[in-house]
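Could you help me review a protein record that somebody else here produced? What it holds is a sequence and that sequence's fold in token form. I need someone to confirm that the token line plausibly describes how this chain folds. Take the sequence as given and treat only the tokens as open to question. This is what I was given:
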Amino acid sequence: MLRILMVSILLLLTAVSVLLVALAGPGLWVAVAIFAALLILAISDATQKKHSILRNYPVIGHLRYAFEYIRPELQQYFIERNYDGRPFDRDTRSLIYERAKGTNQEQAFGTERDVNAVGYEYLVHSTTPKEPPVHAPTVRIGGPDCTQPYEMALLNVSAMSFGALSANAILALNKGAAMGGFAHDTGEGGLSEYHLRNGGDIVWEIGSGYFGARTKDGDFDPAMFAEKAANPSVKCLSLKLSQGAKPGIGGVLPAGKVTAEIAKARSVPEGVKCVSPAAHKVFSTPRELIQFMATMRGLAQGKPVGFKLCVGSRKDVLAMCKAMISEGITPDFIIVDGSEGGTGAAPMEYEDHVGTPLTEGLMLVHNALVGTGLRDRIRVGAAGKVATGTDIVKRIIQGADYTNAARAMMMATGCIQSQRCHTNHCPVGVATQDPHRARALDVESKSVRVQLFQEATVNEALRMMASMGTAGPDELTPLMLRRRIGHMNTQSYAELYSWLSPGELLAQAPDHWAEDWANADADSFAAQRGRNGRTLL
């Protein structure tokens, strides 16, 4: 590893310089002093626990912090162009790091946004603002068929698997969730010991590979699922239909990354390529999906169950709603994952061109549930590049009850968005299964940062809601979020979009919903038609 190599080289250089002093005279004592000082610095960097970069890259890691110090110009060039690619913008990234560290988050000289640009959005404040609540509100997850409801925080850890993330990253996220009283979604990679060790509240996600609850043939194993779902740390069960980064395809974990620990968590053979199929085996129609929700809830002894999806066809969403009405069964929650989300590796063209962005997907699901009279039974979560208090407020206005963050939580644990997640060479030990690299991530200090980030972000969201004249999330309306649609005018979300009233689709579907509502079938997901008119199954 680099830290061992760096210490060894400096130790050798120091020894050589001392030898040269003995042979050539005292004129080389300056070199001895320099190399000895660097050796001490290298040892200090490699053994400290505050900075992951310095633990893995002693001495040379200080260059990164030097660029941070002389920002914005050089940091902008070096960090964003050479490391980040398509990251959060500089202000958002700085805000995440500062909140995680519990430091000052104010900025001089006003906004750096172009408020006159088309597409710029802003929240409408009140002339009579209120004081924010002392305690952050929670959202009760649990419909009429749920016997063990859960109080969900406004911001939680979104789905990231053990395997994609290191054991230390999972431990830090979960301990932060335990300290802060919010939930930690496991991702589809199984329920590992690292998710359970620190006692944080768990949303156990089951994907199409049924990892952690699968038979040897890759089918869903009800007995294994029931046994693990009974763990008191498991508060909710989530079935992943699709994810924002790569909707419509499954994932592959190369054989070399399937260690003994990962094999145990996923119930797969060690050292064998682990494939997550594109489609589920347990259902093929909307009705079968909703029936499986009831099966999951029964196996989980009445705990909340739901599903996550990146929205595709509106007819598919409406077909699910029709199946819920027909069967009299509803999930307790639906998590809408935006196509702009994603923390690990995904095909570039899927990242850029497949899936519905969070704003449109979230409003579609919300309106479909409202229009079918189901909204009061089902809570809606929003995930997809959520990072700030503003994001929380906007997503609630657009139809969410709560939010999940993945990338921002990774950054709270020390991620620098180096975009090497798929290489196993994460420089800070967050997205790697290399134990030497993962060692750099100190669980104790990073768990505190996760907790501080979540708390500060939720508090800022509540302060913004109070500035808007509301007492909390329940009083937010589409009138309070505006978008510039031209150089001369803006419109609120109430004007930009149509919002269905409760039961409107059941009574008389409006014209712009009527065709999709009529064609939605509880026993068939929407077929796509080719250019020649043939139905593509």
About this structure: Residues 72-85, 533-537 have pLDDT under 50 and may be disordered. Residues 443-467 form the longest helix (25 residues). The chain has two domains: 2-85, 139-496.
